[in-house]
Amino acid sequence: MIKMNRKYRKTIIAGNWKMNLLPSDVRSYGDKLKRMAAKIKWCDIAVCPPSVMLPAAIKVFNDSRIGVGAQNICDQAKGAYTGENSAAQIRDLGVKYVIIGHSERRQYYGETDISVNLKAKAAVKNGLIPIICVGESLDQREMGITIEQIRIQTKIALFGIPADKMRKIVIAYEPIWAIGTGKTAAAEEANEVCEEIRKLLRAQYGARTARSVSILYGGSMNEANASDLLAQPDIDGGLVGGASLDPEKFHAIILAANQ
Ligand code: PGA
User: Which letter, b or e, does each residue of 109-145 get, where b requires 16 or more Cβ atoms within 10 Å of its Cβ?
Assistant: First the structure.
């Protein structure tokens, strides 16, 4: 049975390579994935390699429907920010998406809700589709403040972004305790949080906009649990880390999105 909400919003499966693989791996990965995913029409696919590998990824996916995403951008437009890449620079390469506010960036590189908001705005301004990550820690879940945490992160991330830009925004719910741990949130549990995010979008932007936004789940998604997660009404795709490094495993998750 094809999910009803397909009428309103896209299903997206995005692979987050994190700091894995080499520039010289991109070609063979890309060729394999393109071959396997050649007929896929029911979902959008994105591959997000480290920024140094973006040109190679653009080149290999150029003749396919597979979009390329960055994992980060600078929150400033240009200037003296050694080591950073601006949204305009990333866009100019032909990149389509950018992951913003991943919990690893928040945890290891001091990203805050405020910088996430600046980056989201920079992405939108430059024609990149931000995949904005939100998620609670294990402590927060145990304290019963998951929804509060998600609401605060989402509201701040979207501050100042008008309704007409929301169709070009993707939100990824990634419970921190599920990332890279092999522990996945139960499908219904993950859906509850995604539903809350949509409620917040509805209150802020109205029902039509809220139902047009794709909300992804991320955190140990793999070929075994993907169908259950992706069958949930408010989960519109996945942000896949570990399992995206192998094109076959990634492809199996893409196939699971066909429901
Ligand atoms: P994981 O990572 O699938 O390896 O848990 C997901 C993510 O961090 O985006």
Answer: eebebebbbbbbbbbbebebbbbbbbbbbeebbeeee
Closest approach atom of ligand 1 to CA 104: 8
Question: Which residue among the candidates 104, 111, 136, 174 is catalytic per the annotation?
Answer: 174
Q: Are 184 and 219 in contact (CB under 8 A)?
A: yes
Domain 12-257 sits in CATH at: 3.20.20.70
- What integer pLDDT is reported at residue 184 of this predicted model? 84
Q: How far is the CA of 8 from the centre of ligand 1 (A)?
A: 26
What confidence tens digit (pLDDT) does each residue in 73-86 have? 999 999 999 999 99
Query: Is 104 annotated in the active site?
Result: no
Does ligand 1 have an atom closer than 6 angstroms to the CB of 135? Answer: no
**Cα distance between residue 68 and residue 55, in whole Å:** 10
Name the burial class of residue 192, with classes exposed (0-12), middle (13-18) and buried (19+) by CB atoms within 10 angstroms of its CB: middle
Q: What is the pLDDT of residues 228-240, one digit of tens each?
A: 999 999 999 999 9
139-153 pLDDT, tens digit per residue, is: 999 999 999 999 999
* 216 in contact with ligand 1, CB cutoff 6 A: no
- Which ligand 1 atom sits closest to the C-alpha of 243? 3
pLDDT score for 53: 98
Domain boundaries, given as residue ranges, for the chain: 12-257
- Pocket flag, ligand 1, residue 48 (CB < 6 Å): no
Q: Is 174 considered catalytic here?
A: yes
pTM of the model: 0.97
